[in-house]
Design goal:
By secondary structure, the protein is mainly alpha-helical. The protein has 14 helices and two strands. GO terms for molecular function: ABC-type transporter activity.
Length: 275
């Protein structure tokens, strides 16, 4: 595993564009650190400091930081599809196979890289969230601090699943731009399936249940939006805002299932393809 991971990391770090995209994909999520210290002066009447609103309290901070950080995954998605596009355009995929790397090892090297960067991103977000929370949170009890760290697991699984989807599209289309465009196509297809389910069952809730089994939607649902939750903390009497924002095991299982399928299909494509 380490040999394959080291091989892939060398390729990425020797590529200037990949290094820049990796740097950006890791730095941008830390804009939450900047947001936590922002003070907005409203014409001298009062000053609003986001950190003082309670949104960086434990345990809600795990929910907020992972939700917003997950939107920056598209930068590393470009790296993932570029990994495949460059292999085909530079003919290095054929050279790797000549040098003794099997097709299975080739796919695994990409997957190990995805897992490595997803894990690294998760650790960095965890450390940042922990220290922001320690600074702003009024709760210091250990059981409260670590109560909802399941969002970190959801964040990790979400990244691995999304990048595995990008890997599959990269293998399928062999062109970075086409692979990224197919993400938008898949997004449209999922909404078409939603409307098909709505027409069939005549019920919006059932249609959404069907959609939640689809790749992009299942990844999104791992970490639900935190806006209603923030409102609930400020206006607890608003019972109509209550919703289920927890991370559920079956949601993780669905995404892991898609991840396994994408890796398997990537391997099958490479195995059957004439290089």
């Amino acid at each position: 595993m380490l040999r394959l991971l080291n091989l892939e990391l060398q390729k990425l770090l020797l590529n200037r564009t990949s290094k820049i995209l990796i740097f950006v994909s890791f730095i941008l999520p830390f804009t939450v650190l900047v947001l936590s210290s922002i003070k907005i002066n409203f014409f001298g009447f009062f000053t609003l400091e986001l950190g003082e609103l309670g949104i960086f309290n434990f345990p809600i901070i795990w929910h907020i930081t992972t939700f917003f950080a997950s939107y920056f995954k598209f930068f590393f998605a470009i790296v993932v599809v570029s990994m495949i596009g460059n292999e085909y355009s530079n003919k290095t995929i054929k050279q790797n196979l000549i040098d003794g790397v099997s097709k299975k090892e080739f796919i695994l090297s990409k997957f190990y890289t995805i897992v490595f960067f997803s894990l690294l991103a998760t650790i960095l977000i965890a450390v940042a969230s922990f220290f922001i929370g320690l600074y702003y949170s009024s709760y210091t009890e250990v059981n409260i601090i670590f109560r909802e760290t399941s969002f970190l697991l959801a964040y990790f699984v979400k990244l691995v699943g999304f990048f595995s989807l990008c890997l599959f599209f990269g293998m399928l289309l062999r062109r970075s731009a086409f692979a990224l465009a197919f993400l938008f196509v898949l997004y449209i297809v999922e909404w078409l399936i939603f409307w098909g389910a709505y027409e069939s069952f005549g019920d919006t809730e059932t249609a959404f249940k069907v959609k939640r089994f689809l790749p992009l939607e299942s990844m999104y649902k791992l970490i639900d939006q935190p806006f209603q939750r923030i409102m609930i903390t400020k206006f607890p009497e608003k019972t109509d805002l209550i919703y289920d924002y927890a991370v559920h095991w079956y949601e993780i299982a669905i995404v892991l299932g898609w991840t396994a399928l994408f890796i398997f299909l990537s391997f099958r494509l490479l195995k059957k393809r004439d290089l």
